[in-house]
Amino acid sequence: MSDSIPAIVLNNGVRIPQLGFGTYKLPAEDTRDLVLRAFEAGYRHVDTAQMYRNERAVGEAVAASGIPRAELFVTSKLNNAFHAHDDALAAFDRTLDELQLEVVDLFLVHWPLPALGRYTEAWAALEEVYRSGRARAIGVSNFQPDHLRRVLDAGTVVPAVNQVEVHPWFGNEEVRAFGREHGIVTEAWSPLGRGRVLDEPTLARIAEGHGRTPAQVVLRWHVQRGDVVFPKSATPSRIVENARVFDFELEPDEMAAITGLDRGERTGSHPDEENRTDR
Ligand code: NAD
User: Fold this and answer.
1) What is the pTM of this model?
2) Binding site membership of 232 for ligand 1 (Cβ less than 6 Å)
């Protein structure tokens, strides 16, 4: 099963499994077991964050899985309170400690917090972490083209990824295009629009034609667009279902119909407006 999840090569040569397991708001007491379920279902990539307060449970699942460390891909993210250089370095140390890992595969600045104006400082700290070898790749999350331009100007490492909201109701095309032009892979967060897009009749029609579920059709759409996805589910049967998206293909007209559902509707904050540092 894990063999069937393709890898995408990041701009520094590191390979990331195109499909992973999202962990935001999984029930805390079940997180370890659900990540283990995902590994059993073939997932080899897990997305966590300091903000989710579940790095320890994710690390416990990694340790308990028995899967060689080199076969797993673990992402975490710098929390909003820690953009100051020394705070970022200390927070990264805590991430490794919580995960009980010596190296994380990908570490991201979670939000740009433009009103605070310190994301290039946070990025400089992540570059130090990268050079130390304790993160195999570094990137950003929720960065608009303006924020990315500043990072490209001020920094020396091009972010490997930009993790942003993308789903059929919110194609986020401008940000995706900027990434394509600069060798920054787009990771689509809330790929299912937190489940809200799944009742679209267009998805039901396409799903029926392929003998699939609407969730599988949406995930397949992301995959064929070349983005990385990590759907979240606390339901074991859905965890399995969401990984079975590499054995069918959507036709160009089906891809276009799903892209056409875009109504500019976010489920989360606009990156220019998210300025909370207390989470
Ligand atoms: P998602 O789009 O993955 O939707 C999850 C919800 O969809 C589930 O809670 C469930 O209600 C439903 N669902 C899942 N599988 C289903 C299925 N097969 N059939 C029917 N319904 C199904 O939403 P998400 O959790 O917000 O996003 C995924 C991951 O992205 C997160 O867990 C997290 O890792 C990441 N994320 C990152 C940021 C960021 O700021 N960087 C923000 C939000 C999410």
Assistant:
1) 0.98
2) yes
